[in-house]
Design brief:
Number of strands: 11
Mean pLDDT: 88
Helix content: 10-25%
Oligomer: single chain
Order of helices and strands: EEEEEHEHEEEEE
Strand order of the largest sheet: 3-4-5-6-8-7
Structural class: mainly beta
Low-confidence stretches: 168-172
Length: 179
């Protein structure tokens, strides 16, 4: 993965570093780093744009607030950022469950579907809730979706394999995303 980006959300000196980022084999056209609205600093959005035959695939990585009011504000911000894009992947710790009002609103607003329904991610040692999501534009085909059992986080990573849109010159290419 020759292309990578890392955004530190919080640093706890000598103890921990909370961050999000991506690794890619494809060179992104651009990478945007936004602070998300809310009372507490550190929540953010990374938006990477990748070329797809005359258009762009926007890959957004987010870590949302614990509070519902702040999540609504943050999802509204992300929806406005994603508005110009035809093909979108949104992933991350969204800190809300599948059926929440804010997540339903966001999915409807951005024309997104969940990749892999019912994948529990939290807590990692005995997952019972899905707080980590990968959402994709409704025109992207999800080939597979699963979680990984890893001990380095209190959340299980989500891995999704999607197919690049049929009208792309790179038909059949696959993108693997993990949150």
């Amino acid at each position: 993965f020759p292309y990578w980006y890392d955004r530190a959300n919080r640093r706890v000196a000598g103890i921990a570093r909370h961050s999000m980022g991506f690794l890619s084999r494809v060179h992104p056209v651009s990478v945007r780093n936004d602070a998300l609205p809310g009372r507490f600093k550190g929540r953010g959005l990374v938006l990477a744009e990748f070329p797809v035959a005359g258009t762009t695939l926007a890959v957004a990585i987010a870590h949302l607030a614990l509070g519902r009011k702040a999540r609504w504000q943050q999802l509204a911000h992300i929806a406005s950022v994603l508005n110009p894009f035809e093909h979108v992947v949104v992933m991350g710790d969204l800190n809300c469950v599948e059926g929440s009002d804010e997540l339903r609103w966001f999915r409807d607003r951005c024309n997104l579907v969940a990749a892999g329904d019912g994948l529990a991610t939290y807590p990692s040692w005995a997952p019972s809730r899905r707080l980590d999501h990968i959402l994709v534009s409704s025109d992207l085909k999800v080939r597979s979706a699963t979680t990984l059992h890893r001990g380095y986080s209190d959340h299980r990573p989500v891995v999704v394999e999607i197919e690049v849109p049929a009208h792309s010159a790179r038909k059949g290419d696959l993108l693997v995303a993990s949150a």
